[in-house]
Specification:
With 580 residues, this protein is mostly helical. Helix 28 packs parallel to helix 30. It contains 32 helices and no strands.
């Protein structure tokens, strides 16, 4: 046995008792024999077996250890059975067992029994919790159910446990956007699938039914969002709430003022549409925020700043604009469109609101609807006209006129509002993706350069760049032309080479399209990226890849030998007078 203080506390002779017995007796061997007889397994049926085990070379220690492990397993099973019960009798039994067994918690062989009792005890006595907090080894061995009771009074300990999960969560999101081999659509996964991920479920388990721990998590996420501006913390905030909703943790979701709004928005994202009924629900919630309760806006803005929410709101707005073009409707008269723009405005100002602690809903500039949106609609109409023109019978003159009339620079209002309005800029970003998705070469070249001066550098955020690069890889044949390369690289990417994420996305694009690029353009890109330390491993791999690709070019097979007497005649040297 290692240590013995705990045994004496529960009336079992330990090392201290044995030390006294050996130092005060006249016959140490007899004292040891008596100790074994008194404290061994006292079952009469086992007594005759001990000499037999001795004959087989089985040590008493091994025998006793084996019996003890078996008994521990049975006892833990009985404790778990008690834990499944309900009522005061269950709590009383567990409380009595804990008081009797806690003194032996430092014995590693007996610790699992005490831990099992602690796990099922709803309210552990504070005197026991103090011991567990002070002893790091004991604390690390505790189940989450017990740690929750400690965390409610020790926020730092909780932060130490949950922070690594936050970091891993963000790293996974960033890896999905930045890894050069990943070309999946970042927004493909449904909300329910996303929140069933391992990290989300671990954090939810750590929170349990504790409102206090949930509040701590929200405070951590707000602080991290303000400190880092990383929007993935907004995604985590929304996914945690809906994961708790899925598990029906009513103690928490009923107290979160954002629950019904988030639930409704989640349903819209899942179904990829906002019908009139849900639109009224969302707008009714925003309109119901009363004076004195404006702080709710900070959490709502985080929910709406989630990239998955932003993606849904922006793509839905563009779909509505296309529908209005077909029905000859007016954007300013479409209630759902105006609601989507209002929610985008709130979400895009989340960081400012939380950082400044100014809880007022930002007002959408009316001219975004009256001036910018019409300019965006005109671009969409131009795209439709060019697409229709391509499907008509060839007529060189009519085609040329169509291209000229519908391929000029974007309207002044379009370019101006991209630099001034966050909502206008975001709609322009998603419209640009729309042109790339439809492989509209002219449309993409027309508007991509405008984004280099985007408000708040929104066009250089990871979610947009990942989507854009993935779509450009699908248009790699166009990169063989210099005019297309000029827009993509010179007018857009090269304007933000000081940003590390832009450089990484450019490296990804080069990795997948280098074979299509003109040699001079490829060399220019390699030279531009050469000075980026984080890209050196990728560039080395790329050079090896390019060498392999060049080595794999099939050479024409050698000509078969010709059986002719002329082949043995030497070729005459050219006469000087034959050439000027």
């Amino acid at each position: 046995m290692s240590g013995g203080g705990g045994l004496e506390e529960i009336g079992i002779p330990g090392k201290e008792y044995l030390r006294k017995a050996l130092t005060s007796c006249s016959d140490p061997l007899k004292a040891i024999s008596d100790f074994q007889a008194e404290n061994g397994i006292l079952l009469p049926s086992l007594r005759p077996m001990l000499p037999l085990l001795d004959l087989h070379g089985v040590k008493r220690f091994e025998f006793h250890t084996s019996v003890m492990e078996s008994l521990c397993d049975k006892l833990i099973q009985q404790i778990n059975d008690i834990g499944k019960l309900e009522g005061r009798e269950r709590d009383r039994k567990l409380r009595d067992l804990l008081h009797k067994s806690f003194p032996v918690i430092r014995f590693k062989t007996l610790r699992p029994i005490v831990m099992a009792i602690l796990k099922h005890t709803r309210e552990v006595d504070h005197k026991f919790l103090k011991v567990l907090v002070r002893d790091k080894e004991l604390y690390n061995d505790l189940d989450t159910e017990v740690k929750r009771q400690i965390w409610t009074d020790h926020q730092t300990l909780f932060g130490d446990e949950v922070s690594p999960l936050f970091i891993r969560y963000v790293q996974q999101k960033e890896a999905a956007l930045l890894t050069h081999t990943n070309l999946n659509n970042f927004f493909d996964l449904t909300p329910k699938v996303r929140r069933q991920g391992e990290i989300i479920q671990k954090i939810v388990h750590m929170i349990g039914h504790s409102v206090k721990l949930y509040d701590m998590v929200l405070q951590f996420l707000r602080t991290l969002f303000v400190k880092t501006r990383n929007v993935h913390y907004c995604t985590l905030r929304a996914e945690l709430l809906m994961a708790l909703h899925d598990l029906e943790i009513q103690e928490i979701v009923d107290l979160d003022p954002c629950h019904k709004f988030t639930w409704c928005l989640d349903a819209c994202i899942r179904e990829r549409s906002v019908d009139t009924k849900r639109g009224r629900e969302l707008q009714g919630f925003l309109d119901s925020i009363k004076k004195g309760n404006e702080q709710i806006l900070s959490d709502l803005s985080m929910i709406l700043c989630d990239p998955f929410a932003v993606n849904f709101l922006a793509t839905s707005a563009l779909k509505i604009l296309t529908q209005l073009i077909n029905s000859e409707g007016m954007p300013r008269d479409h209630a759902v469109l105006l609601l989507l723009l209002r929610m985008l405005e709130l979400g895009l100002h989340a960081w400012d609101m939380i950082d400044r602690q100014e809880f007022r809903e930002p007002r959408l500039d009316p001219q975004v609807v009256t001036k910018f949106v019409p300019s965006l609609v005109s671009l969409i109409v131009d795209d439709q006209v060019r697409a229709l023109n391509q499907r008509l019978p060839p007529d060189e003159r009519a085609s040329a006129i169509t291209i000229i009339e519908h391929s000029g620079p974007p309207p002044d209002a379009y370019q101006a509002y991209i630099t001034e309005s966050s909502v206008a800029c975001l709609l322009a970003v998603y419209y640009t993706l729309q042109t790339a998705r439809s492989r509209d070469r002219v449309g993409l070249m027309r508007v991509l350069g405008c984004l280099s001066a985007s408000e708040g550098d929104r066009a250089f955020e990871d979610t947009f760049l990942h989507s854009l690069v993935t779509l450009l890889i699908g248009m790699s044949d166009e990169l063989a032309t210099e005019d297309f390369c000029t827009v993509i690289f010179d007018e857009f990417f090269f304007t933000a080479l000081s940003k590390e994420n832009v450089v990484q996305q450019l490296g990804k694009l080069l990795w997948h399209t280098h074979a299509k690029l003109p040699t001079a353009r490829r060399d220019t890109l390699m030279q531009a990226l050469h000075h980026q330390p984080n890209l050196r491993p990728l560039l080395e791999q790329l050079r090896e890849k390019m060498e392999r690709d060049e080595g794999d070019v099939e050479m024409p097979p050698p000509a078969p030998p010709v059986d002719s007497p002329l082949m043995s005649v030497p070729t005459p040297a050219p006469h000087r007078g034959d050439y000027p």
